[in-house]
């Protein structure tokens, strides 16, 4: 087994150096003996950067876990603090943002499926616990984008790790906004459960492939 982490800050070991090595180090501690884990994630990466990460996949990869979209969400929602003429206009603008995000994310999901490896998509990382006006407004927008990720995961028979449920508490984030040591451990646990419950499509039997697809369609592998 070789689990590869892709995406942005949440899976970049360099961005989480203060959290006991980040999610990657925590994952290596909980995977079974003989299993490997590595990360191609990069702090600041956007959805359009993911194909370059896929091009660098090691030959022995068995599972892919993707956490991407934070940078895209920040850029897309930057203008939502502007005044609108009505609630309907505001909702229309948010729907357009969601649709553009979903189109780009779906294209990346297709590239992930083409690897013929079990894939888990993560919802967008955002620190829990902030209750100021801007954070609440941004949270509504990010929830819409997360809904797009959930739909892509379910309709594409991909696994889903909902980081909102995995790391719901203040203690799951450090002062920089990255996952804390506890948050990293919780995310690593969800990733390990995903890897333990799936079999690489390229190496399993036809019967097991059908079972894996049935399980992923039925539950979405929604961990939380």
From TrEMBL:
It comes from the Bacteria. This is SGNH hydrolase-type esterase domain-containing protein.
